[in-house]
Description:
The protein is an alpha+beta fold. The chain is 44% helix and 28% strand. The protein has helices at residues 2-9, 56-70, 80-92, 108-115, 117-134, 158-174, 200-219, and strands at residues 18-23, 29-41, 44-54, 78-79, 98-105, 140-143, 148-154, 177-179, 182-183, 186-193. The strands form three sheets. The protein has a five-stranded mixed β-sheet, with helices on both faces. Strands 1-2-3 form a three-stranded antiparallel β-sheet. A two-stranded antiparallel sheet has the order 8-9. A hairpin with a 4-residue loop joins strand 6 and strand 7 (148-154). Helix 4 (108-115) packs antiparallel against helix 5.
Amino acid sequence: xxxxxxxxxxKINYNEGIIQRxxxxxxxxxxxxxxxxxxxxxxxxxxxxxxxxxxxxxxKLEKDxxxxxxxxxxxxxxxxxxxxxxxxxxxxxxNASLGLVLCDLDRLKYxxxxxGHKKGDQLIQAAxxxxxxxxxxxxxxxxxxxxxxxxxxxxxxxxxxxxxxxQLREKISQSPSFxxxxxxxxxxxxxxxxxxxxxxxxxxxxxxxxxxxxxxxxSQQPTIPH
Length: 226
């Protein structure tokens, strides 16, 4: 009714299409674009006539393209581009408590060299699914490199981050053998700040340093080749 009122009162730009989502007789909503032309009599709008076309496929394509821009094709989690956008947002626009968890997938090169890149891709996908199972929908789980993942946690606490990382380590330790005697392993680093403005770069560096220290300590222990 609001759109009809705008069309008959001249409160819209008749040169622009009106995008509407309309429920069909089958109960399914579809997107339409309508162009209307007012009919005047004695200087007043007495009626409108319009042409409406179904743009459902166009809207779906736009949504799919937007999804692909922000998501990693292999793992279906967020990609580096989206992660960097959100880091910029919390660095410059919104001041919030912010946590970062960096995870580096151990032994990916070993898997690629020994079993092939298809198995390596499967290991990356398994790691992504494990991370999604631990961190809530409010967390931004992203793949930012071949074997590197970052979880951005706004509006959180250090205690909550540590609890989630303990849960992550437990799930990693309980994960089944991926291939032969090889299990999924990740090196982890965390950082937290009560305020995010101007601090995201230093948070990333802190989490990155912790993650590499975790990896370094593991390398000194007897283990399967990396």
